[in-house]
Structures are given as structure tokens and as C-alpha cells.
Amino acid sequence: MAENVTIGIVCDIHLPKHKESPQYAFLKLAANRMKKDGIQTVICLGDISSYGQLEAWELYRELFDGFEHYEVVGNWDVSDPSTRDTILGY
Asked: What percentage of the chain reaches a pLDDT higher than 70?
């Protein structure tokens, strides 16, 4: 019999590359709530970053460290050519 897994879903965060933003504060609140509620896996359905900054992805991954997590790359996530290859994993 399959094990039950609790999944949290986030999308369209548009996180800037710094922690001093409303988006970061809200995402931190959401991550803490998911931990409290026993969420095991987090899926982000795109647009983690506001302008494709690698730093925003690093902040996202820092907040969801300890979760199994998966990301779908959104159009905003690849809008910065200097980080596009890193984000896409090429």
C-alpha cells in the first residue's frame, strides 16, 4: 500500500533577489505554516523569481530546505539571459 504524502503547492511568487520584500515575508510565512501542518512535499508551479535572478531561486530553496520540492520553470524565471542556463540546468 502506498504511503500518504501531504503536498503543498505554491505559484507565481515573483520573489525579488533580497529578503527585504513582502514576497519573501509571505513565502517565509507559508513555508513555516507548511512545516507546522506536516507538509512533506512542495511543488512550485512557476514564476519563482521576479526577473529571473538566481538569487531569488536561492532564497526560495533556502526557505523550503527540508522539504522534498519540485519546481516548474515559469516565463519570468528565464527572463534574465545571464542566469537562464543555470535555472534550466543546461
From this structure: 97
